[in-house]
Design goal:
alpha+beta; Nucleoside Triphosphate Pyrophosphohydrolase; 22% helix; globular
Amino acid sequence: MSEINWKDKCWVTTLFLVREDGKVLLTMNKNLNTWIPVGGHINPGETPEEAIKREVAEETQFDFEFLEEPEYKNDGNIKIIKPYMIQIEKVPHHNQHMNFIFIGKCKSWNEKQATDENEKLRWFSKDDLLQMEGKMLENVRETALKSIELTKK
């Protein structure tokens, strides 16, 4: 079986999860010491879609649907995964992440305060994110704001 990681790259997937009240979920990453979307590494044999479903279940137990569900060709043999974007990012402890980024609508949640790995969880409003300028990764803040906008439609 081929390896999912090669040389200096890891395959990961993340999800900007937005509640119906317009708040987006972020987690405090212990390695980067900043707020990022929930997610993680793609395991061998998983698609990005399968991996993010597993990661969200493990980290939050929240139920969600993708903003745009994967499309299927009529014969059922071809599945088109359409993430919001694919990003290549430098990560100090892994060199580069090939990140499949999805946006999702949260269908059920609770006031859970931490992930399964004891990393803080927080729901951010648009105003919260606007006040976080310079206090979190700008690409995370921008995508979180865009996720709130896109889920209103």
